[in-house]
Amino acid sequence: MTRFLIKRVGQAVIVLFLVSIIVFVLLHLLPGGPARAILGPTATPDSIAHFNHQQGYDRSLPVQYVQYLGRLLTGDLGESYKLNQSVTSLIGERLPKTLVLTGLAIVLAAILAIPLGIIQAVRRGKAADYVLTGAAFLAYATPVFFLGLILILVFSQQLQIFPAEAPQADTIGGILSELPALVLPVVTMALGIIAAFSRYMRSAVLDNLSEEYVRTARAKGQSEARIMARHVLRNALIPLATLLGLYLPTLISGALVVESMFNYPGMGLLFWNSAQGSDFPVLLGVTLVVGVATVIGSLITDIAYAVLDPRIRSVS
Amino acid sequence: MTDKLLTIEDLHVEIASRARTVHALDGVDLDLAPGEALGIVGESGCGKTMTALSVLGLLPNGGRITGGRVLFDGTDLAAAAQPVLRDVRGNTIGMVFQDPLTSLNPTMTIGAQVAEPLVLHTGATKAEAWRKAEETLRLVGMPQPGERMKNYPHQLSGGMRQRVAIAMALVCEPKLLIADEPTTALDVTTQHQILELIDELRDRLGMAMILVTHDLGVIAKRVDKVAVMYAGKVAERAGVRPLFAAPRHRYTQALFAALPERAADESQPLATIPGLPPSLVVRPTGCRFAPRCAFATDECRAAEPELTDALDPGEGGGEHAFACFHPVDPETDPVAEVVPPAPEAAPVRTDESLLTLREVAKEYPLNSGPFARRKGAAAVSAVAGVSLTVKRGETFGIVGESGCGKSTLGRMVVGLEAPTGGEIRFEGQDITALGRKELRAHRREVQLMFQDSYASMDPRSRVGAILREPLVIQGIGDRAAQDARIAELLDEVGLPRGAVDRYPHEFSGGQRQRLGLARALALSPALVVADEPVSALDVSVQAQILNLMRDLQRDKGLTYLFISHDLAVVRYLADTVGVMYLGKLVETGPAEAVFGTPLHPYTRGLLDTVNEPDPTAEPTGTPLGGETPSAAAPPSGCRFRTRCPIAQDICATTEPPPAEPTAAGHRVACHFPLVPAGPGAAGA
């Protein structure tokens, strides 16, 4: 197990290193270089040369890369062109917000989707299965903005139970202290994920229920409920672990619609606004963070696999 | 009736799927006294497994008992509620299933799985259950049971897993053990060990047993009485000795006659049962076996024979019941009566060597990928220095247990894998040195026939397209010529020409194997490598395929490299035999010499281990113990020495060179070959 972990973490570090190279190359592929991007199309060659010298862009690429890597390691992602703020502090402000939102959405989705999937599998072909399957497809097919609008209309405008605006605090503690305001954005985000997860869970449980080890458990005299809890659940969670890992990066980068709908300035809005304003250091900073999240996501998946499945532990 | 442990009366089971309802069991009557062992035999789909499963109420989805009773210890399990059934399962009735890998939970430790029934049924604490589980594992012969308790199923070998499954079934000391094909997924030597273990445990614990199997060899010496099932009914029921000595039902007779072990000699074709068992969707009228029976009359087709009670005239006068209007006369030889006559023309064998292997080796690196270590790193030695010669027109049989490298060898001969050492010469040409184009031409001459023809055919291709493909790839003939060739092939393997428009899934297992043979023959090859071509088939169908392979060999002068784990089949079909163990060819020679006077202790052990379908056969020699070591770390010197009863120090240090101590052509690689000292002395 320890060897497995060391191996996987080592691989993750190598991938992160490659990510940093790609982001660095992207930085230098900007049309006309970063100077043109910042100073605008009317900049004189002199001012560009001055800017490049000032920023160190006139040195050789390897030297620049080493400097870039050095800055990365000290947490310096450069300065935003537009917001007059360091990229690190910008991401530092926005990331916790997104993490709270997506984290809660994923946790909620997992908590609901696992039992829902089990119910569908156990009641396969019966009314409960059809109703839940229909609901899952409906939730999956509804665009997030439309779902959000309906939720706002019903729960905020009509029933006035939850506010239509997400918490505006800047710290995690502050955001969490306004729980009612989190309900609508989290639910909006979670519904689609619940739909997807529960479908996966349903088919994983069905697959496992037809396995012969379940028949063996029945032949031991075990009850159906305990067969599910003791035998099937763990085996059925293995495919779900992959799905969770895959969701992590998408949720860090892709909460744009929910964020803008509930006025919740997280990573999605930051990325969107920077793209609109050609704020390249911020864009690349966000790209790097999402890259890191992807790598960490797959690392978590691998570890979850190893915890759930003893066969993987001993192979590696 | 009260002295019976289990009584099954007029049991009816239906299995409903979306499209149809199958009457899987249609009035089954069986009984079992405490401590007695009953064998249920029959071919696939006859209802033997359904009978076993319905005792515990474990029928598959859509299955239910529609009539009859299953009395166990005074309780009717067929009508019992779930809690009553759960109390019996794993407690007073234990069950062992066929595949020990899939029937264990992959993510639970062995200990937890073995202890589970105890916690459920005896109210033992976790610690007590754990202790008892360890004790039971020791009882089933698990080495270091304490360590193994913490292992997961994938860390054990197949034989050890089946021991775990048996421990699970026995941990509550049941009165009845139901074993459903418990050894079918295992190697010959492991099979023997497991059967011995079950025997011994039955003696010690005094439990009754139902042993369900398709293999007549398995039940011959393990049970007291046998029920032969056909199409959801019991066809014949008798003590094991009377049944094997004088089967009365025509189906039982045909089953025995189809066994390659019972063939008088190799030139004689095997008896086959034409056609297929009925589908059981519609209840057949008349005797269910009548459409396939050579002795059927109008009476058989009109009325269904009842299971008649007749006392056995032989030993003890036990019950011998059979459902047949025209039973076998107990005075005649049941096999000779139905075996077809031998063809006049003997097969043509030549002395011209077609295929020569010299020191062929294949190693698979253990670590792959960009960071794998270089040469000299850990590797699995699948085939290690095999040399042999196959003559044109003969059948060369390769036998060995799983993992001995026999399939890898076959794949190298066909050119699907490149050897890592040695050379393979086909018609004098070294095929390892062939370029792409030459290799394509070579493939015309050497074709492969697979064990699982269904898995090896594109399920979305029609048969016509499957048979045409090799012709198209090799650019043979125009469309019309190809059509003619396909029709000819179907004729040759005995399939209707209309088959071209059908898909593989529409055929039965035996028909698919015919298709596999037709595809292999499409290019008129000189050599067909047949890798376990009959191991997935029932005995009667196996006989059909073996006969067909022989007929085609005689007509076309084909050469076969016949790979199998089944000694009886190889003995029947092969002219020359090679015995493989852990990547090495340990013995090779004419079939009658190798099987008659084996020189290598492994061959001797294999032959002693085989379950003869004869309850009166005396146990010979010493069956093989232990397990095959890993091919990733084969033993030094002679690879067999770790299991060899006569191994000496030299065996660990020096690899035995091949020698021919008795007759030319009968080669053995052993320091101490079992050269017979006098007539008949062969044991060690």
Structural notes for this entry:
The complex is a heterodimer of chains A (316) and B (684). With 316 residues, chain A is mainly α. Chain A has two domains: 72 residues, no CATH class; 183 residues, MetI-like (MetI-like fold), CATH 1.10.3720.10. Chain A is 79% helix and 0% strand. The longest helix of chain A has 36 residues. Chain A starts with a helix and ends with a helix. The mean pLDDT of chain A is 86. With 684 residues, chain B is α/β, with parallel strands linked by helices. Chain B has three domains: 331 residues, Rossmann fold (3-Layer(aba) Sandwich), CATH 3.40.50; 207 residues, 3-Layer(aba) Sandwich (Rossmann fold), CATH 3.40.50; 76 residues, no CATH class. Helix content of chain B is 30%, strand content 20%. In chain B, the strands form four sheets. Chain B has a seven-stranded mixed sheet. In chain B, strands 17-18-19-14-20-21-22 form a seven-stranded mixed sheet, sandwiched between helices. In chain B, strand 20 and strand 21 form a beta hairpin. Chain B is globular, with a radius of gyration of 26 Å. The chains are: A mainly alpha (316), B alpha/beta (684). At the A-B interface, helix 10, helix 11 and helix 15 of A face helix 2, helix 3 and helix 6 of B.
Termini separation of chain A:
8 Å
The ordered string of helix (H) and strand (E) elements of chain A is HHHHHHHHHHHHHHH
Could you give the order of strands across the largest sheet of chain B? Answer: 6-7-8-3-9-10-11
Report the β-strand fraction of chain A as a percent range.
under 5%
Q: Which CATH architecture of the largest domain in chain B is right?
A: 3-Layer(aba) Sandwich
Average pLDDT of chain B, to the nearest integer?
A: 88
Q: Tally the beta strands of chain A.
A: 0
Label the overall shape of chain A: globular
Largest sheet features of chain A? none
Helix coverage percent of chain A: over 70%
CATH class type of the largest domain in chain B? Alpha Beta
Helicity level of chain B, as a percent range?
A: 25-40%
The pair of chains with the biggest contact is: A-B, 22 and 31 residues
> What would CATH call the architecture of the largest domain in chain A?
Orthogonal Bundle
Number of domains of chain A: 2
CATH fold name of the largest domain in chain A: MetI-like fold
Structural class of chain A: mainly alpha
